[in-house]
Amino acid sequence: MDGIEQGEILSVERISTPVLAVSKKFFNRTEQIIACPVLKNASSDPLHILIRTKEMQGVVLCEQVRILDLHVRGYKKIDELRPEDIMNVADAIQSIFDYYPFGK
Q1: Residue 79 — pLDDT band, cuts 50, 70, 90?
Q2: How far apart are alpha carbons 88 and 58 in whole angstroms?
């Protein structure tokens, strides 16, 4: 593995949509990545983050976080996000796990 960076958009063998690597490079060295699918369009939702790059436009589905083993799948980098877009996606994922306020 060449060291996939957080924010890279990949085409992965046997997955029909591109995926966004949301895990950091130090984790990705395990030959696994944490990723979210990127669709061309999706319903409006706080966990659906619109992205635009030089090569594509789409919506990251932050509620569909998956671990992908790239050791057993071929992949190709197709694009990457700007730092501010990575922050928006990371914030949306973090919001799933926020623990305050309790009981609400």
Answers
A1: very high
A2: 14
CA distance 52 to 80: 10
**pLDDT(1) > 50:** no
Q: Model-level pTM? A: 0.91
Q: Are 50 and 32 in contact (CB under 8 A)?
A: no
Please give the Cα distance from 66 to 68 (Å, whole number).
6
**Beta bridge pairs of residue 38:** 60
Matching CATH number, 8-97, of 2.40.50.140, 2.30.30.110, 3.40.50.360, 3.30.200.20: 2.30.30.110
